[in-house]
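Practice problem 4.
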């Protein structure tokens, strides 16, 4: 079994994009900064795209005269990570081992076998020696070195953008020092992202650390056996796509009850919704996708094995156990395949290969590369990338029909928290200087759709298939790793508030229905009260309903 800790430099497709990232973070200029079409590099990575950090200072519009920054808040996706769990990679490795035993691997397939082991090993060893996580525990799903860097630098740019607000001496000079509140989904990579962000703040403004605090711990859930959650964790706001009775069942009349029901409905539609399932099945059964999968796998397997795979006579499974030495004085890590992931047929196997390839740029520190080139037909890779992107559009994004409504509404608890924080500033409660939340693509994608961000929120009519000709939605632009939405709040001497929203650190617009709240034509600033009314309407709430909810969840 190969034990190399890095991929070979012999030209396999798994490392084909790393060269594009070798010179630094992906560049972007607004939402159109990433490649908008497949086949142009980073756009092929979809939601696995490393964060497109601004290259150099961003010129933000100055606040109108008399307005000063008084508050800022953010929700960010976790940074670059390894594969979320062992499954498809182990099943693909198993499939390659079977082909090798039959002497049915091509020379590139032989290299892939070694490269897959390097990837499995790198994923397993993520986080070894880190303060979080138990030694000897698999590192699948944890942040990579790049993911940690993304959030450290995001924090430093935040301080650079708002130096007067985030002045440690000024914040501590208040009668009651103002707080920087942190919240996360409860998943380790989100918590690690929060800690990396804190590290960035310690570097940029060391005096801010005494002001760090975790969001108040939830204590009422599940209703049938309440237990205190970890401080800072709020699944209702940051993991709402996977609420369950055993962890999140709300008491009768609870402020989160409606969101809990929405989550269950969303999950049911995701698993059983006839329209959604028909759309996803049509994508999977597309003859063009099958042909692209066959072309990809023809570079790996000789024809006899390839045809046997196409007929379903062989399949890969995530089986076997591996003891992987850390090489860092921490012993070894045991990785067990659970057998649940199965690759049967060309499409499943090719998609597993695509997913393995797409995660490599996030591991560029752990798997350094040089002298790289691509061996697979670009058109085949494009077809696989488009399938994954279309699936994300229907399952998480603007979607169509019933999924379009659910995919937006499921994030309303997060929007309500954003608004409640600004409402407190409006009421002259300045206890919070900022609230910083760390979550997942499943939160960011619905959230920007609910906000009505142009290019990230437009559903398709029922019966209209997703394509780049029919929709402006691009996964690499909407939800790259470390994607974020930030609201900066400014106040004048009379107490009027202006809000400037940023999407991936570039000024963003809200839904066109909120245009009446824009402070001036062409301005990046919105008057808060009309914007608030517009966003409440997008949630389907009347002012009376929203006031009642705000009172029940006020800080």
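Answer key:
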């Amino acid at each position: 079994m190969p034990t190399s800790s890095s991929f070979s430099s012999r030209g396999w497709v798994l490392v084909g994009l790393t060269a594009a990232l070798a010179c630094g973070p992906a560049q972007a200029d607004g939402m159109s900064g990433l490649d908008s079409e497949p086949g142009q590099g980073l756009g092929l990575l979809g939601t696995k795209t490393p964060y497109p950090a601004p290259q150099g200072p961003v010129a933000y519009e100055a606040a109108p005269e008399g307005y000063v920054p008084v508050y800022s808040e953010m929700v960010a996706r976790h940074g670059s990570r390894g594969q979320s769990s062992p499954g498809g990679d182990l099943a693909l490795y198993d499939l390659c081992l079977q082909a090798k035993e039959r002497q049915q691997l091509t020379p590139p397939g032989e290299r892939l076998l070694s490269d897959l082991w390097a990837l499995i090993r790198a994923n397993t060893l993520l986080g070894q020696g880190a303060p979080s996580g138990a030694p000897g525990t698999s590192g699948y799903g944890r942040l990579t070195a790049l993911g940690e860097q993304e959030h450290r630098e995001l924090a430093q740019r935040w301080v650079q953008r708002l130096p007067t607000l985030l002045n440690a001496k000024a914040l501590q000079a208040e009668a009651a020092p103002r707080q920087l509140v942190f919240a996360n989904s409860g998943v380790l990579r989100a918590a690690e992202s929060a800690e990396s962000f804190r590290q960035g703040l310690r570097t940029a403004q060391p005096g801010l650390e005494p002001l760090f605090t975790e969001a108040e711990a939830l204590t009422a859930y599940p209703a049938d056996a309440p237990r205190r959650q970890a401080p800072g964790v709020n699944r209702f706001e940051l993991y709402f796509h996977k609420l369950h009775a055993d962890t999140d069942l709300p008491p009768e009349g609870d402020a989160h009850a409606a969101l809990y029901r929405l989550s269950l409905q969303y999950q049911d539609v995701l698993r059983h919704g006839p329209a959604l399932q028909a759309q996803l099945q049509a994508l999977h059964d597309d003859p063009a996708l099958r042909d692209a999968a066959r072309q990809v796998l023809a570079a790996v397997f000789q024809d006899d094995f390839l045809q046997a795979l196409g007929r379903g006579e062989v399949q890969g499974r995530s089986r076997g156990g591996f003891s992987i030495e850390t090489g860092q004085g921490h012993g070894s890590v045991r990785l067990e395949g659970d057998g649940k992931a199965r690759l049967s047929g060309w499409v499943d196997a090719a998609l597993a290969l695509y997913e393995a390839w797409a995660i490599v740029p996030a591991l560029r520190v752990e798997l350094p590369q040089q002298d790289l080139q691509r061996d697979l037909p670009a058109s085949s890779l494009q077809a696989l990338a488009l399938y994954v992107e279309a699936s994300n559009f229907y399952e998480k994004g603007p979607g169509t029909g019933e999924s379009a409504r659910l995919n937006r509404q499921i994030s309303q608890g997060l929007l309500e928290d954003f608004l409640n924080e600004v409402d407190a500033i409006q009421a002259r409660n300045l206890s919070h200087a900022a609230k910083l939340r760390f979550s997942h693509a499943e939160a960011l994608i619905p959230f920007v759709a609910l906000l009505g961000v142009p290019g990230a929120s437009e559903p398709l009519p029922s019966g209209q298939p997703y394509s780049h000709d029919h929709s402006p939605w691009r996964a690499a632009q909407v939800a790259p790793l470390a994607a974020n939405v930030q609201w900066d709040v400014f106040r004048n001497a009379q107490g009027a508030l202006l809000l400037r929203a940023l999407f991936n650190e570039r000024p963003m617009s809200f839904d066109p229905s909120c245009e009446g709240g824009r402070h001036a034509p062409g301005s990046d600033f919105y008057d808060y009260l009309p914007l608030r009314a517009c966003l409440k309407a997008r949630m389907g709430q009347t002012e009376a309903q929203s006031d009642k909810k705000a009172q029940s969840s006020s800080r």
